[in-house]
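Help: why these numbers?

___
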Amino acid sequence: MNHCWNCKGSFEKASVFCPTCGAICGAYSGDYFELFGLEADVNVDVMALETAYLDLQKKTHPDHFALKSLTEQMQAIEFTALLNLAYETLQSPLKTAVYLLKQQGIDALPERGGDTPPQLMMKSFEMHECLDDIESLEALRAYKKQIEAEEKELIEALAADIRNASFAQAVEKTVELKFMATFFKELRIKQKKLKHA
């Protein structure tokens, strides 16, 4: 049960605005998908996310509450911070996967790290070896396309694992997806070097 800070009214469903008095609820209690009206999935509908984000941003921007009470101004600032975090999270399949697993009580990428699976270590070695051997921008572009296709397949498989509650496999794929994100950064560095060679 949710309670409005302003009118003290209660309402069951998480809401951005109090259904009774219309005050903004800075301490939004729903999840990120509910906030944007999206299905909870790693493969987020990016266009729908963008549309919902811009709509909420327009309605809840702190500037609209400049003449309201200090409490309501603070509620708007608090909500804007949450809105931006939710948007940033759902834009990234990696961050979305981590968020979905966290909702299940699973820390997919603990700060202390963990042992890299041998299979992923071997894959990392092979990918870096291929990257080191590339000597032209044309070859690099072709390799990037190949890695992007592999990443897309990985995201699809990860999404399926989470939908099917195969969380152990989902964690393994999330770790691999994080590795892929790091590898793309290294690929961009190689691209800059080749451009200026």
